[in-house]
Amino acid sequence: MREVTKRFLDVVANDSVTLELFPGEVVALLGENGAGKTTLMNVLFGYYQLDGGKLLVRGKETVFSSPKDAIESGIAMIHQHFTLVPSQTVLENVMIGVEESFFLNMAKARKKLLRIEEQFGLYLDPDAYVWTLAIGEKQKLEILKALYREAEILIMDEPTAVLAPTETKELFETLKTLVARGKSIIFISHHLQEVMEISDRVIVLRNGRNVAERKTSETAIPELASLMVGRELLERLEHGESSPGEPVLEVADLHAKNSRGIKAVDGVSFQVREGEVLGVAGVSGNGQTELSEILFGQIVPERGSMKILGKEVPVGSSKAVIKSGVARIPEDRISTGLFMDLSVKENMILESHVSEPISRNGLLNKQEIESFALSCVKSFQVKTDGIEAPVKSLSGGNLQKVILARELVGDPKVVVACQPTRGLDVGAMEYVHQVMLDERSKGAGVLLISDDLDEIFLLSDRIIVMYQGKIMGETDIEHADRDKIGLWMSGVAS
Amino acid sequence: MIGEIFTVTFITGLIGATLRMSTPIILATLGEIITERSGVLNLGIEGTMLFGAAIGFLTTLATGNLWLGVLMAALAGMLLALLMSVLAVYLGLSQHVSGLGITLFASGLSMFIYRLVVGSPTIPPTVTPFTPVAIPLLSKIPLIGPSFFNQYALTYITWILIPLVSIFLFKTRGGLRVRTVGQNPFAADTVGVNVNLTRTLCVVVGGAFFGVAGAFLTLAQQNMFLMDVIGGRGWIAIAMTIFGNWNPLAGAGGALIFGFLDAFQLRMQSLGVNLPFHVFLMIPYLVTILALIGVSGKASVPAGLLKPYRREEKGG
Predict the structure, then answer these.
(1) Is A145 on the interface with B (CB under 8 A)?
(2) Is B114 within a domain?
(3) Do residue A98 and residue B315 have CB atoms under 8 angstroms apart?
(4) Which residues in chain B touch residue A42, judged by CB atoms under 8 angstroms apart?
(5) pLDDT tens digit sequence for A38-78
(6) Up-side HSE of residue B141: CA atoms within 13 Å toward CB?
(7) Complex prediction ipTM
(8) Is this model's pTM higher than 0.90 or not?
(9) Do A2-229 and A234-325+412-494 come out as alike in CATH topology?
(10) Which of A176, A186, A336, B169 is in Cβ range 3.0-4.6 Å of B175 for a Cys bridge?
C-alpha cells in the first residue's frame, strides 16, 4: 500500500499511509483507537474505496472494488466482530461465497475443510452449529474460512481483544504455524506485549498517519508506547488552584457485565471531590462506557454502591441520579443524549419538565419553557434557527451545547462527562473544555471519561486508567507520566 | 348432525376444500419465507396479492386465456415487489412503512385499473375459471382420489413448489447465500456476496408468488374480481411464516391447518349449525392467533430482518 488516503466526508481517516508486507512475516499495525488502523485494512480488503494512493499486490497495481476482488487476490480479513452466521453450521459458514456448484456439494467441501484442518492443526467439527462454539473456536473458524479461500495474506483486526489469555496463546501458536507455511499476517493491535511477542515488524499509526516503523527485535515496549500515544502536548488551559474539598461522588466495588454478558466493569472504586476533575483514561472498550452507564443509572450493576454528596443513591435508577443533581453528558449525544426530531426547547427541558415552574399540575408552561430555552441558548451560545428548530438541524458542536445547557443549568455539584468532545472540531472542543473547567472552578466535581489522552492531560487534576474493567493505576497530574499511562492503558502494571 | 359429518362425501369434500383453500395461502407463505429469509419483511403482500388478482383476472377477461392471466399476475406481483425493493433495500427506508404503503397503494391501484377496464356494471363480469384436473388412475382411488387428485393445476404446482423452495433454501448455493444475507449481511458482504442484489432477487421472486396467489382466487377459487377477494390471506401468510419458523415445510403445514379450518367453518355454516356465521368466520383467525402465541419465543427470526444494509456506515 503506497500513500493510501481515505476520507469519510470531511474527516481524513488515513493520510498517505504506506505499508509493505513480505511473504512469511507478521507485521503488527499499532495505534490507538481512531488512529485509522481498521480503516486502512478495510481499504486493503476492498470494503472501502481509496481516495488516493496505490495498492500493489505481488508488485502489480490493483484496484479492489469489493471484498470479492480482495479474496480473489488471496487476501482475507478477520474482523474484530466475527462475520459468522450463528444459526448455520461450521461447514456452511466456511463454504459460503465459494460454493462450487448450484447444488451444495457438502461431501466435497467437508473433505477440503478436513484436509485444511489437518494441515494447519486447527480442528473444528464441520457439523457443529456456530452458536455452540466458544469465542476462541469462532476465531479458529474465521481462520479456517480464510484458509479455505486459499488466502495468502491474513488481516487480523484486534484478534485478541475478545480472547481469554489461554486462547490468545493458542492463537499465537496457530499464527506461527501459518507463517511457517509461508502465509503473511497483518496483526492489528494496541496491546504492546502481544505485538512484541508475535510480530516481526511494527508499523505505528497515529491520527491516520505513519509515525514510525521498527523491527520488533530492535525496539522495546516503552518506545512503542510513546510512539503510539504521541508526545505533542496541547497547551494546558488555565486551571487555577486545585483545592479539592469533600467527596461529591463516591463509588465502591462496582461490577457489571456488558450487553454481551462479558464482565466489563470489575471492582471499580473511586471518589470525585468538589473542585476537581478526575480523568478516566483508557483505550475504549475497557469498561468506560459501562461505567458511565452505571453512573447515569442506565444499567444495573451486579454489585457495588454509589454515593452522591455523601448520600447513598440506589443504583440503576436514572431518576434517582437526576434527582440528586448529577449532570450527565453521555457518550453518544445523538442516540442517548438528545431526541433528534424534537425541537431545541423540548430537548432543553427533558429532565426538568416534571417540576415547577416548567410544568404545573401536569401541564407544560409555554412561557416558562420559552424563556428558559432562550436563556440557555444565549448563555451557551448555541447556534440554531431558533428554539423551535429540531435539534437534528444543528451541528455536532451545537448539539453538545444543547446537552451542556440542559445539564449544567442550576449549577450541579457533580458532572459526569463521557467522551464529551468525540467527533467535535477544535473550536467546539475548546469550548467544551472551557465549560468543564468553569464547572470545576464553581466547585463541582467533574468525572471526565475519555479515550483521548491529550484531553485527559489537558483537564484532569487526577487520572485513573481503566484496563479490562479494572483500574490499573492512579496518579495526580503533577506526577503523571505519559509513558507510564500508556503502559497502564495496555494492561502493563508498573 | 354428527352423522352427517362422518359421511364419506363429507370427508372427501372437506379434504378437497382444505387443499383448495390453502393453496393461495401456501403460495403467499412460500413467497414471504423466501423474502424474509433474505432479511426483508414484505408487508406489501396483501396489496400485491390483490394487484395480482386484478391483473390476472383482467388479462383472462380480455384474452380468455387463463394461463396468460396467471403469467401476468406473476409479472404484476414482481413489479410491485421491485418497487418494494427499491424503497426498502436500495433506499433503506423502513420496511414496515414501505410494505404498508405498497399495500395501500396497490389496493387503490387494483380497483382503479379494474374500474378503468370494466366500468361499474350492476353485475360484475366473470371469466370461465380453471376446472379441476383429475389425475388418471390416482383419482380413482376411493376417498383419497377425489380429494387429493382432483384439484386445480395451480394446486398441484403449489404442492411441487413446497419441497422445491425447501431444497433451494437448504441445499443450494443460492439458498445458502440467501440465508447468510438474511442472518448476517456483513458476513455475506465480506465473502463477496452482493447483499442488496440478493435481497432484491428474493423480494421479486416472492412478489411473483404473491401475484399468482392472488390470481388463484379470481381465476380458480372464484371467477370474478371483488375488492375484498384477498380477505386478509396475505396477513395470514405473514403469520404462517412466523408460525413455520421461516421453514417452507412448516409454513405450508400451518397454511394447511388454516385452509382446513376455513373449509370446516364453511361446511358447518352450510349444515345450518345454529350459531351466527361470524363465529365460524372468526375460528381460523382465532386459531392462528393462538398458534402464534404458542410459538412465540421459540421463533428464530432472521437476524438481519428489517435492517437495511449500508457499507460505508459500518465501522470507521
Answers:
(1) yes
(2) yes
(3) no
(4) 315
(5) 788 888 888 888 888 888 888 888 888 888 888 888 899 98
(6) 9
(7) 0.80
(8) no
(9) yes
(10) B169
